[in-house]
Every structure is written in C-alpha cells, then in structure tokens.
Amino acid sequence: MNAHAAVDAPLLRHDRDGVATLTLNRPGARNALSEALLDALGTELDRIAADGTVRAVVLSAAGPVFSAGHDLKEMTARRADEDRGRAYFAEVLSRCSGVMQRIVGLPQPVVAAVEGVATAAGCQLVASCDLAVAGEDARFCTPGVHIGLFCSTPMVALSRNLSPKHAMEMLLLGEMIPPADAARMGLVNRVVPRGGALEEASRLASLIAAKSALTLRTGKRAFYEQLEMGLSDAYEHASRVMVENMLARDAEEGIGAFMEKREPSWEGR
C-alpha cells in the first residue's frame, strides 16, 4: 500500500513490479461510487498516468460486491435543493463520466477484477476497463429501468463493448447477467473460479507490464481513436501510427531481438 493511501480511504493503491492495483474500499456501502470515491479514483488515475514506473493497472474491490453504482443516498438527499437536485445530478454524472474517460485515456492498460455484483455505474466501470476478469460469483446488471431511471451513462460504455442488441438487452430488461453470459456478450474476457479474479487479473497485468511501455501507450490510444472513425479513416490513422511505431527505438529493438532469438531490452522510446 502506498503511503498516501490510508486503510480507511475510499480507494487503496498497491504497486508491485510495474503493476498498480487500485481497490475500491467502501465495502460497507457496496462500493458505491460516492463523490469521495470518484474524486479519489480520478486523482489516482492522474497520478498513474504521469508515473513512468507503472505499465499496467488492476482495478479491484474490497468486500463481496464490486460496485453497486452511484451512491443513491447521496444523490437522493439533494432532491431537497431549490432546483430539486438538477445542478448536483449534472455535476456528479459529469464527474463520473470524467473518471470513465480517464480510464479509457490512461496510457496504461487497465484490467478489472470482478467478484460479486457490478451494477449500473459499477457495470459501466467494468466496461470502461480495457480487459475484465470475472469470478464465477460475479453478476452484471444495468437495473435502472426497474426504478424509472434508464442507465443512459452506463449505456455509453456498454455500447462500446457489446453488440447493440446485447447492450439493449441489458439496458431494457435490467436482468442480472451471469459471468458466462457476460463473456459471451463481450463484457468480460475470462471467467475464473470464485475468488480468483484478482489473481488472474494480476497475472494478465504482469504479462502486459513486461511489454514496451511505448508500445502499450501507442497501441491503446490508437485502438480507441480508430473505433470512433469510419473504415477508411481508421486504416489511414492506424497506418500513420504504425509508421511512427516502426521508427521507435523499442520497435527496432524488439524486431532485432526476435530475429536474433533473444529477449528484448525495452527503454520506452
């Protein structure tokens, strides 16, 4: 645990061998994404983005629930505001959306380790990560329709992971999705025995961390950029990125090491 992360903090961080593990730490509140937790997560992601020693990130949670989404107690309390909470709701949703975009924009790949339930914005958090591992007890849900609140912001992340019909199935029905179905739909990469998600996510993160930091940064950014483009523009953009990547020192070293049948020595440039 880093010195700046107190045990009772809403978010914990532990670094080891190039992998930063972030742990949502509000188990008594089902790891709901309170203002404090969103702020802590955003701040830590900014620190990681600027930390050249971190090459991959694992996002996990303390307790039996990954995350129940937004803190509805916090949000409901603001209905007493003069504007019935309009300004507050807009600010909190903007803050949450900013955190999700930080994950996507982070130079380092992020692997979610999911045990228990991930609902609403908690499911959005999983969908925003680059990879996700789920324990056999994991369940995923966007249940807003049951309480008259369509999960519109989680929809953004879901629709970029799942096929449209799978995303709409989750959003319209609000049913709990078991991990096998989540894997089939594309929300998670792997399903492991109960309690094994963190170990497997950490293993994947360690494999990623052994790669060139420059290559990871370049590839992740290009992946999400080309997703928003048409086919022709995507190929043109990817070609430009690949030319620059080919001219990088790490690509020259990696190709040379492959041809010489030796392990490459990465410098991140």
Automatic annotation (TrEMBL):
Gene3D superfamilies: 2-enoyl-CoA Hydratase, Chain A, domain 1 (3.90.226.10), Lyase 2-enoyl-coa Hydratase, Chain A, domain 2 (1.10.12.10)
Biological process terms in GO annotation: fatty acid metabolic process
Domain of life: Bacteria
One family name in Pfam for this protein: ECH_1
UniProt GO molecular function: hydro-lyase activity
Entry keywords, A to Z: Fatty acid metabolism, Lipid metabolism, Lyase, Transit peptide
Protein's UniProt keywords contain Lipid metabolism: yes
Role, per record: May play a role in fatty acid biosynthesis and insulin sensitivity.
Similarity comment text for this entry: Belongs to the enoyl-CoA hydratase/isomerase family.
Name of this chain's protein: Enoyl-CoA hydratase domain-containing protein 3, mitochondrial
Lineage, opening ranks: Bacteria, Pseudomonadati, Pseudomonadota, Alphaproteobacteria, Hyphomicrobiales
